[in-house]
Specification:
Length: 108
């Protein structure tokens, strides 16, 4: 597995997690305090979540995760704050599988 697969997943995990928190705050503001609209925020989060799912599936298939683990990682993108705890654990495990070759030393 290449490093860029893990990097894409990590970036999208954090971006999606932040937008989920923004979306959650907007929902609380809308229904709890009768203020604001959630249409744009929900659409942005929806698109970001789809990209997150694609990258998580890509990482999971290359890391040969069992289906249950993949579901757990995907569920973390749906639960506020969960991604901030699941992503570091997944990254530690996946980092051991990265097989990017080290750059060859230049010979003089």
């Amino acid at each position: 597995m290449k490093q860029n697969v893990l990097t894409r997943y990590r970036v999208m995990a954090y971006v999606t997690a932040v937008w989920l928190l923004v979306f959650t705050a907007a929902i609380i503001a809308k229904y709890g305090f009768d203020a604001g609209d959630t249409m744009v925020i929900s659409q942005i989060h929806g698109v970001l979540f789809i990209v997150y799912v694609v990258f998580a599936f890509d990482l999971g298939s290359k890391a040969k995760w069992p289906f249950g683990k993949l579901l757990w990682v995907l569920a973390a993108g749906c639960i506020p704050f969960a991604s901030f705890f699941v992503e570091p654990k997944v990254s530690r495990e996946a980092r051991a599988m990265v097989t990017d070759p080290a750059p060859a030393a230049a010979q003089a």
